[in-house]
User: Fold this.
Amino acid sequence: DPHNHQTPVTTSYSLNIDQQLPSKILFELSYVGSHSHNAQNGVNIDSVPVGALSNTAQVNSLCSSNPDPTNGTCQQQFRPFQNYTGISATESTGGSQYDALQASLNRRVGRVTLMLNYAFSKTLASSTASGAFKDYGASEYWSVSPNDRGHVLNAAYVFTLPKAVKNNQIL
Assistant:
């Protein structure tokens, strides 16, 4: 549909709580999320209509040489454009949703900063795989995203170098 090109929209939101703990430890707890809709999805407008291959009489009449509905040659008889095996188009039907609870601990000791971060999250999205059956609609493909990383733990450190001294031969 050439008129189905709506502007993609993403809404992001977060809530952070910071607390200074004893021993110069900074604790941060955050809820982070985003929601997107009207994303571009690839669809096959030449897919076999849903249910077309379940009509045994029609399969037998159109595929008389090999009435097997799993046969690609037989399936070709049911496509809207029989001379092609696939015609790709885009629609503004995609979307995604990300929600996460994030926790962070930071501690500075002299020139070293230690960091520990953890995220518990879920990413849901509609399929963006080209060739998806147009007949089903995007809502049928809403599921856990292949990019979902439910648990992420990071540890890092930063060492701050001393300031350069004037006339230093090494620097």
